Amino acid sequence: MLLVFGFSVTYRTVGEGTFHCPRCGGDRTYRRRAARRWVTAFFVPVVPLRAIGECAECRTCKGRFATSALRTPTARLMAAALPAGMRAAAALVLAAGDPGDPAARERAIQVVRGYGDTAYDGAALDGDLVLRAGFLAEEVTRAGDALTVEAREWFLAQTVRIALASGPLDEARRRAVHRVAQWLGMSRAHALGVILTTEGAAH
Ligand SMILES: [Zn+2]
């Protein structure tokens, strides 16, 4: 009798979730799959060999990707990170000046709503004002991670406009917008350029 030997790879599902599929370009469900090589006889796996590793398989396009693809934030997460980051930036600059200033509060509410949190209002702002700086830093940093260089500049410019709504920047509010820039991952020189340009345009 002639035995036909060969090799094959089998996949076993070890987890699932939602990720940003690099091929579909959107949020998709995935299966995390562990691969193992087998010796086959008559095309039937009979002897397990070494485990090859794990991959993420998109349930929509069936594409398989290295598990590092799971680190890319989903569009839903990014969409939530931006308004949360802007809320944190607004709270920081308002707290550095007069948090009750009506013009600055109104500007903050407009900007945060423009970033997608359409229910944001004065009460939400007051809630954010009592948050600790460490938490605000995390929120701004997470937003910065999701933004391109140009979008970070825009984010910072909007923060400066909130601060400018209550008048020219004093030392405390200038420090606050520089902190926001630092949390966004911008260099001091880069931040200075954006801040000066925004101040110039406001005159
Ligand atoms: Zn896909």
Query: Number of domains in the coordinates?
Result: 2
The radius of gyration over CA amounts to 25 Å
The third-level CATH topology of the largest domain is: TerB-like
Per DSSP, the total helix count is 7
**Small-molecule binders:** zinc ion
Residue ranges: pLDDT <50 for 5 or more in a row?
none
Strand content: 25-35%
Strand order of the largest sheet: 1-2-3-4
Mean pLDDT: 93
Given helix and strand content, the structural type is alpha+beta
- The share of residues in helices is 40-55%
Query: N-to-C SSE series?
Result: EEEEHHHHHHH
| Main CATH class of the largest domain | Mainly Alpha
Number of strands: 4
Distance between the termini: 92 Å
CATH architecture descriptor name of the largest domain: Orthogonal Bundle
Q: What's the gist of this structure?
A:
Helices cover 50% and strands 25% of the residues. By secondary structure, the protein is an alpha+beta fold.
